[in-house]
Automatic annotation (TrEMBL):
Keyword DNA damage: yes
Source species of the chain: Sediminispirochaeta smaragdinae (strain DSM 11293 / JCM 15392 / SEBR 4228)
InterPro entries: MethylDNA_cys_MeTrfase_DNA-bd, MethylDNA_cys_MeTrfase_DNAb, MGMT_N_sf, WH-like_DNA-bd_sf
UniProt enzyme class: transferase
Name this protein carries in UniProt: methylated-DNA--[protein]-cysteine S-methyltransferase
Database matches in Pfam families: DNA_binding_1 (PF01035)
Amino acid sequence: MVMKAWQLDRDFSLGTMRMQVTESGELFSLRFVDRNSPMTEEQRPPRQASPYPPLPEEAERVLSSTIDQLREYFAGKRSGFDLAYHHTGGPFAEKVYSEVSRIPPGETRTYRQIAEAIGKPTAARAVAGALAANTLLIIIPCHRGVPSSGGVGNYRDGTRKKGELIALEKRLYGTSCE
């Protein structure tokens, strides 16, 4: 069976983000998109008839909630998210995502520290791989995982964007958040 999905682009302080949601209302992708990519929904001229089916009510609710929560996050008023989402990682990735979600905004942990926290002290590379596969940027804060060797490490949407997110959180949330 083919999964029906909808996407929507919105501008936030660090750039345009593309949200993708299933018909049942599960967010399955959130990432930054290049400003030179296709126009956002707000920029598109109105059409006489849409070739796409209307957005299901549950999907619309999740997109609206995602936008609201991201606005609060970028304003320093929200450090966690309350959204229905779906990720494609297995049990190991689930442990990694759960652990990285416990890292307070404005702080980072090395891949090794995350591996130790989930009881897999020799799995630092696997932790980095799980974080690299994350399709729900910010919601699952993979940017808070960094290499032991220094620097910010790789990021799905570029090391510059990862550094910007870490700096933004330090500025907005300090080194701890309730």
